[in-house]
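Quick one:
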Amino acid sequence: MTLKKFARIALVAALVGAPMLARPALADDGASMLEDLAGDWTGVGKAQRRIDGPLEPIKCKISSSLEKEGLQLGQTGRCATTDQTSSISGVIRFDPASGRYTGTWQTTADGKIADLSGNGAGGGIVFEARERGSDATGRIELVPQGEDRYVMRVTSTGGQGRVATSEITFSRR
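Output:
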């Protein structure tokens, strides 16, 4: 898989983990954090879909709902740039024994699936993403910006090094 293709996938699919910072700081308990994330979110920002490409405007809408006794968050949504719209879907789980988050995401852009693994870091959450059947990886940083708002930064890693692929500010709808 080319870095160009992964950058596009990482940008849209990373949104599965996007609402992880509904509050300025992490909840004491990951299950309560997932509960806080249930609801609808909108995002506006810039996305770089090609290694040397320009930053393009992007808009997103996602919905999250609690499942499995509050230890799992199911998500669906859509993101659009000026010339492409993609649907996303995914699941984020909290494991009380390890205190870590895991999950998967998928986009309609190409149907590829990525595995997510993350934990709290610096008042936010950092996920590592790895596409199944590929060496393509990404990093998703979620940084709180006050009540019901946060910034998501996504970088992808491939044969040509780390490349910034998006920065999106999300607000609760």
